[in-house]
Amino acid sequence: MDMLEDLETLQFEYGIQEEDHSWLYLLGRSHGLMTKACAHATFFCKLLHNLRESFSRKSLQEKQTSRCPLTGLREDTPDDDELKVGIIGGGHLGKQLAHTLLQLVPIPTDSLRISTRRPEALDEFKKLGIQCFYHNSSLVEWASVIFLCCLPSQLSNICVEIQTSLGKACIVYSFVAAVPLPRLKLLLNHTNVLRPQYLCVEDLASIWGANKEITAALQDPVILQATCPYSPAGGIILNIKWLEGVFYAAINVCTAKDMPHSQVLQLLNELFLFKHFEACEKDRVSFQKFQAQDFVSKAYAKNLSRKRPFPWFDLTAVQLKETPFSQYLSHSTTFQDNLTHLYCDSFGITLTKEQEPEVSTGSSSQ
């Protein structure tokens, strides 16, 4: 038992003057933003992990049918389907994100690396077997996803360091809120960029707390539901254009594998639609499967042969402009409901009908 746990004199608020108590909401807002940001990054990595698992299964099936003509044994090929995550920045956000990804995706320790100016301050991660160093360009060359957890003042120099090492398929996920997408695209000379945007309302709910570890917070059903992409609960609203970016990023991952668009659609249907409706046979007929025209124009889809991949999408443009998928997301309430269930299920929490959160479409401005 921790005898000091609830001691009033050790609480953060104890030393604050009464006239300054009105500013304490900023502490909750900061913690809420970090919790929501880490939750969405975790969901994104879970999606990429599931995509790559599907690639591995498909590759294994192909290997089993491909035998060496002389020995009758299947030929081994390097496995490049593993999700490799790099974090640039070892401050509070970078550490919280690393802990969350390790525990809740979960990402193996040899698939996560951190580049920071002070790698000696990350002994807790080194003891787990995670490589911590200060070499941003080598991290980018290795990783399939890069999380930018640096200060705005550091971003320009970091972009200069890494832009020539960025592969086309590498996804850059920025937490640098002060730098907008057009500026990021310019600095990185890269279009495969995601940047979530959050709006805080005046009456911020007190559900976030200020002392709870992010991984523990995301096991709390109330907090987890507040992080759902369509949920306005908690007073922090996600711009839903991020979700469009997530889908198009997943399509780009498949396009990098030269996967026919018909297989991509089948994969997205399996990941986002079928799983929930397997348990809801009554609702199964009420949803519409993804089609090519949900992601590209009708004219382009009409001329897209089954074996051709989707085009490569500029994720910065996806998050800044209207897309065919914008209409799908805004009008399909069945999908919104399904995504909420899928999101909570991915964190190990199953929603009942009474627990379903209120839905918000979020802001579309950047």
Automatic annotation (TrEMBL):
Keyword Oxidoreductase attributed: yes
Domain Pyrroline-5-carboxylate reductase catalytic N-terminal: 84-167
One record GO biological process: L-proline biosynthetic process
Keywords from the UniProt entry: Oxidoreductase
Sequence similarity: Belongs to the pyrroline-5-carboxylate reductase family.
Function in brief: Probable oxidoreductase.
Protein name: NADP-dependent oxidoreductase domain-containing protein 1
Species per Swiss-Prot/TrEMBL record: Balaenoptera musculus
